[in-house]
Amino acid sequence: MKHLGLAALASATMLMAGTAAAQSVPPTKGPAVGKTPAWFLQGSFPDPGGRTSVDANGVVTVLPRPAPPPSTAPRPMMGCRGSVVCQNRDGPKRGEMQRVQWAQTLGYRFTYPIHLPEGIGGVPAVALDSKHNLWVFQRKPAGQPQLLKYDPSGKLIMTVGDDVIGHADKAHGMAVDAQDNVWILDTARATAKKVSPDGKLLQTIGTDGHPGDWVEEKGQRYLWEPVMIAFGKNGDIYIAQGHGNESPNVTDSDDPTNNIGAARILQLDKNGKFIRQWFGHNVGRGKFLNAHGLGVDPRTGDVWIGDREDYRIVIYSGDGKYLRTFQTENLVCAIQFDRNGDPWMASGQDGQFLKLDRNTGKVIGAVGNGMGIGSGQFIEASYWVFDVNNNLWAGDTSVGRVTFMSRKR
User: How confident is the model at residue 8 (pLDDT cuts 50, 70, 90)?
Assistant: First the structure.
């Protein structure tokens, strides 16, 4: 009996060890639960960084990168010492990530009706005006137009060149206001620019080439890494600023106008007059490390902030009061509301556009085939727009093409 007892104990120990080992292996897929579709993991794809050519059918060819001159030394990394924005520098490399993908149950197809001018450069953002014209903001070499306007048939009807708006060193977000003016953001040169429907520069917020902190009581009105802009029903302007842990740390900067180093939301009235701003500080209730996505809820006026690398959406009221946080399974690269007022998010290099439950933040639908350069794929699914029929128009930050996602009939 003693030997049997020892054998049983050994067997039980082995069983528990096996169970623990099995439990230590994370799942790679999961079934649909309620309104949430099934999910699975899919690997990453090398980021071409905009060095692509795209044919008339939307087929992408990745171009080789030119070898740097022998005398070119790598740019030294800036130090990151005392700030909370220094955290997470040693996390998983993007190219090694397994990305959560959701089964596509909404019924969309992918086509490529917009033909961009030849040349390299990704498309970080698109926007639609009230006349159904599509505006495209592209990262192009200096001297080549970056702001393009297409009519509803897909014909290029206007380009706005560097001679009008200057050259965006890092073209980023864009949006069209209620008067059909298009706003474009240059993250690197720290400006938000308002352009009329006929391509004239009307207003610049921030000082070109001087990233910094907005301190209204000092009359100091700089932007720090503006990435996206959105508008309230009353015309209020919201500007999301800060890539967070990706950004050069400025908390030890010798520049007294640029030393906060934290992501933030700036709120101005329709004329650009300061109302308020609020900041994120990495962790804690209502905080955010990164302000990459931004959308204003058309039903409530609440401001939804996409804290990309921390996989969460942080929601404030229109007057800057914290309301709630949703944790996500995907990168929150952009936030948009469809024509029914329902929230969606673009999942960046996870390569999908995800419809969300507004009360829980859970995924209830998905569009897109994940990270890549094939049909319906995106190296980075970012700032996009819905047309009047809830079809999606989207660029790709690292590929020079525009995808039209239409509902199957």
Answer: very low
pLDDT digits 0-9 by tens, 68-77:
777 655 555 4
Q: In this predicted structure, what is the pLDDT of residue 5?
A: 47
Region for residue 49 given its phi and psi (left: phi exceeds 0; alpha: psi -120 to 50; beta: otherwise): left
Q: How far are the Cα atoms of 100, 232, 303, 371 from residue 295, in angstroms, in the given order?
A: 23, 9, 6, 23
Name the residue type at position 387: D
- Please give the C-alpha separations between residue 162 and each of 73, 102, 126, in angstroms, as whole numbers: 29, 40, 18
Residue 400 CB-density burial (10 A; 0-12 exposed, 13-18 middle, 19+ buried): buried
CA distance 267 to 244: 19
Q: Is the CB of residue 195 less than 8 Å from the CB of residue 137?
A: no
pTM higher than 0.85 for the full model?
yes
The rounded Cα 132 to chain-centroid distance in angstroms is 23
| CA-wise closest residue to 231 among 178, 278, 272 | 178
pLDDT, tens digit, for every residue of 343-374?
A: 999 999 999 999 999 999 999 999 999 999 99
Reported as type and span, the H/E element at residue 116 is none
Task: Mark 290-311 as b/e (b = at least 16 C-beta within 10 Å).
Answer: bbbbbbbbbeeebbbbbbbbbb
Cα–Cα distance for residue pair 288/354, rounded to 1 Å? 21
Please report, as a single letter, which amino acid is at residue 364: I
* Nearest of 267, 201, 258, 197 to residue 231 by alpha carbon: 267
Cβ-in-10-Å burial (0-12, 13-18, 19+) of 162 comes to: middle
pLDDT band at 80, cuts 50/70/90?
low
- What does each C-alpha distance from 294 to 20, 267, 301 come to in angstroms? 41, 12, 12
pLDDT digits (tens, 9 = 90+) for 182-213: 999 999 999 999 999 999 999 999 999 999 99
